[in-house]
Amino acid sequence: MTFLDIHAVSKRYGTTQALNAVSLSIAKGSRTAIVGPSGSGKSTLLRLIAGFETPDAGTITLDQQLQADAGFLIPAHKRGIGLVSQDGALFPHLSIADNIGFGIERAAPDRDKRIANLADMVELDAVMLSRRPHQLSGGQQQRVALARALARQPRLMLLDEPFSALDTGLRETMRKAVSKLLAQAGITTILVTHDQTEAMSFADQLAVLREGAVVQVGPPRTLYERPVDRETALFLGDAVLLPATISNGVADCVLGKIPVEGAASGQRDIMLRPEQISISQQAQPDIRPVEVTDIDFAGATGTVTLNTQVASNGTQPLSIRVSRLDLPSPGDFVYLSVEGTAFVF
Ligand SMILES: Nc1ncnc2c1ncn2[C@@H]1O[C@H](COP(=O)(O)OP(=O)(O)OP(=O)(O)O)[C@@H](O)[C@H]1O
């Protein structure tokens, strides 16, 4: 059932069309991630949902109740929406306990207990409660911001790049913890992020914005495997794009014959994700060897560049990012095999 319905929402700032007829439907208890290049309108959409801005056109409806249209606006504090932003935006002059308890009435008899419970929920040690925000690490501050947002028992939680200021390891731990916490509490959540991997791992629905419009919405896996266009394909991860001749469900390309889905035929471009391609230094029957021209070692992953004489976009050699210990060396010959089907554009 649709919980948040964004229908044909547009927003303009001067001559900039920040959002153009955006529609998005969000189910109760679900987690949606909004991704898109810088300036695509992600923050504008979040601000409209939160109630900090009024749409020029369209409607925003939460739990069957109109929140905003061009001539009407329920103010932010009456929407029951929690917001956690990139910097946490804690009140520097208040203790951690008072930051968490900001939305709980001072006179509430169980205030301290509720604050302690919320700190516990976000796994914040009780000794932190008497401290000030500047005495906490970035990750701890984000936990406080989350606890403060949870204190108001929001119907909807908006997370605006909440993990982006954290180190890689902590970022992943926080993302998993927050995701688990919100799922357990059954809170419908929208995450805006620059990190596509984070978005795919966090969400059950992914929305891609470009130039103020939604270009594709669906389960992360569907978008990753069946992107609506090349730009979306490359935006969501590494992709190997190859020219191919397609007939009877098989694409004939530089990597051999690869099955494709659908009824496409003729000269088309196909897409493979790097994890579909295995590189072996053992001779393989029916596969011709290809020379390695360059290796770029980058820790957990390495990029192998191959002399296939075929360009993915007309000029570039074929480069494949791999994750393995025994990277080949330039000058070696390798054998490429493909798993699964190719996607046809
Ligand atoms: N208050 C404003 N006044 C004028 N233009 C604005 C305002 N807010 C946003 N814009 C413009 O609207 C467009 C969308 O901005 P928005 O901040 O929503 O993008 P974004 O996808 O969140 O970008 P980023 O990923 O860089 O945060 C941009 O072109 C931006 O310059």
Automatic annotation (TrEMBL):
GO CC term (a single one): membrane
GO aspect biological process, one term: quaternary ammonium group transport
InterPro entries named among the record's database cross-references: AAA+_ATPase, ABC_SmlMolc_Importer, ABC_transporter-like_ATP-bd, ABC_transporter-like_CS, ABC_transpr_FbpC, FbpC_RD, Mo/tungstate-bd_C_term_dom, P-loop_NTPase
Protein keywords: ATP-binding, Cell membrane, Ion transport, Iron, Iron transport, Membrane, Nucleotide-binding, Transport
UniProt cross-references to Pfam families, sorted A to Z: ABC_tran (PF00005), FbpC-like_RD (PF22443)
CDD domains: ABC_Carb_Solutes_like
Signal sequence segment: none
Nucleotide-binding as UniProt keyword: yes
ABC transporter domain location: 4-236
Annotated family: Belongs to the ABC transporter superfamily.
Protein name as it appears in the record: Sugar ABC transporter
Species in which this protein is naturally found: Rhizobium oryziradicis
